[in-house]
Structures are given as C-alpha cells and as structure tokens.
Amino acid sequence: MHLKFGSYPVLVASSSEIAKEFLKSHDQVFASRPLTAAGKYINYNYSDMGFAPYGPHWHQGRRVFMNELFSAKRMESFEYIRVEEMRASVSRLYELSGKPVVLVEQLTRLTLGIISRMVLGNNCFDVSGADRAVSNSTVSVEELQEIIKEFFILNGVFNIGDWIPWLDFLDLQGYDLIGGGTDTSAITMEWAISELIKRPQLLTQATKELDRVIGRGRWVEEKDIPQLLYIDAIIKETMRKHPVAPLLAPHLAMEDCKVAGYDIPKGTRVFVKTWSIGRDPSLWKQAEEFLPERFLGRNIDVKGTNFELLPFGAGRRMCPGYNLGLKMIQLNLANLLHGFNWKLPDDTKAEDLSMEETYGMTTPRKFPLVAIMEPRLPLHLYKI
Predict the structure, then answer these.
(1) Which residues carry a binding-site annotation?
(2) Binding-site residues from annotation for heme
(3) Average pLDDT estimate for 41-60
C-alpha cells in the first residue's frame, strides 16, 4: 500500500512476501529510521537503540547490547534473576488467591523487576514504604508503570510535524490516553491467559502437558521449555493473533531502490503491518480463531526467519532483546499456568469476556483482565 503522509511517501507492507523484501532482500537499504519528534525529545536526540538512524552510533550501541546484555553467556548468567523474580511473583499471587486481581499490574511488576535487576543491579522499585522513605532514587511500581505507559504513548502518537516539516512548530496532535499494560512481555502474557480463560478446554490441555512433563512437585525451569510443545504453541499463537506491535517500528529507505518491480525513492518510510500478516487467511486457516494446535508439528519460529510470524521484527533492526523477552514469556507463562487454576469473577462469563484491543504502538487489552487464581500445587512451593 502506497500512501502520502504530508510531504513524505509511505509504504505499508501487509503481506509476508513484501515484508521479506524489505526486511531481508533489501534489508541494508531500509535499515535506518525516520527522524521523528518522539525520537528527538523522548529518546535523547535519537540515541535510543530503537530510534537511532543507521550509522556508527547505532552499530556501537547494538554491539554493547549484544555483548553485555543479550549474549548467550550473559543470558545464562542472568537466569537466577529470572527465577527469583518468578518465584517472588507466584508468591505474591498466592497471597492474592481467591481475590479478583488486575493481572497486567502483577505481570508488569514481574517483568520490570527482572529488567531492573539486569540493567541496574537491583529491583529499584519493589521495596516497602519504609525503605522508600530513605531512598530518593526509588520509585513505586505504579509510578514506573505510568512512566513506561507514557513512553509508549508518546512514541506512538501521530505528530503532524513529523510529516509536514513546516508545521513542526504547531502542537496539533491529539491522542487517546486509553491504555492498559505497557510492558510488551506483560501484554503478551495477559493476552495468552485471556484466550485460555475464554476457552477452558485449551487451558486444560496446557495443564495436562505441564503435569505430564513437570509433575506437581516443582516449578518449571528454563531447561524444561523445549519439552513443553503446547505451551510454545500457545505463545506463538498469541503473538500471531495479538502482536504486541501491530506495526513494526518504521524503516527508512537510505537510497533509491526497486522492490517487487516498483521504484522506491530515497526517503520513503516503510511500515510492516504484523497485525495484518498474522490474520492473513492465505497463511492461516481460521485466522480469527485462537488455535495453538496450528503450530504443533510446524517448524515456525519467532526469531525473524519465518516472515509470516514477526513479533520481534527481522533483519538488522530486529529487536536486540528478543531472546530475553522470549525467555521471560516462556518461563513465567508456563509457571502461571502450572501454579494456578484460573477463572473469571463470578459476575463474568467466559463468552462475555471482552477481547477488544487498544490500537497504538502496542496493542494491550482495552479492558485489563481481572481474574481469580487458586493454587494447584503443594502449598510449600509458594513460599520464598
């Protein structure tokens, strides 16, 4: 699809074939990012890895990311953090057993705890009120969630000055501040559990696999994940039907080129629409249905090699933290399903559960999931 946003030509890739052209065949040409107001003011003058233009700064930043945070050795060395935060999370949820819980709040707390400890060396917000009183540098869970929520909103907002440069001085943008969860891993897990609660037979199938592979005497460990084929299928199906980014971050043509027989001028901005690819009926039978079994026996991964499923993008600008995000989702979703029976509050029927999404830079649920959990493992396992 060819559009004109103000003075800039824009292309939207809504098929896996065209996405492959931009992200693989012509990856180097489209490896840069357009300069936007969000990139300048929210991301330290385009210094953020996601919004930095292609060049030496981006290359150096990516090397630091891959070597210091996301290498296989580093990921292994941080496993204890992921395990400890998972155990702390299930312990908190156990204390809330039998009560309605806004799930995304707990999931965001979990994922931010992991990232905070990896990057800053400690869980900088998950402390008691007394400890906060003597620490000016610590923020609450709620404060940090609001900061991240605003970050995603401001990065995804339409700013007229990004498209019509001579109107850049105007503050004409208006945006919908409706949004639930903001952390991408938390959003994916919330959608997965929503789909399973709505379809109890799928939840039963998942727990049967967990009981068969893990038993009821311990928690799921990362080494168990390759054996949990149905859990893996649930995650892939969630990423297909509910991609956390309905549009990948925009790419910028650095030179004139020809794609699929069309001449693409330098400066064209390209969006890959993962939401449409994930619902393409030519790729997916019953595309509107949540069917994890479609991935059983199929060699489709989420790491940028299969262009029908691109939750983390592909090519040079693929999300450098995909491995961490995937590990967090796999371990924590598996243990949430292993550790608890899930149901909706008494006044909500499964068939009435809203599956509306908020469309923006991310796609959280329009109405956050409220669920009730009951422990399904021996009670001593919930103690830390």
Answers:
(1) 319
(2) 319
(3) 79
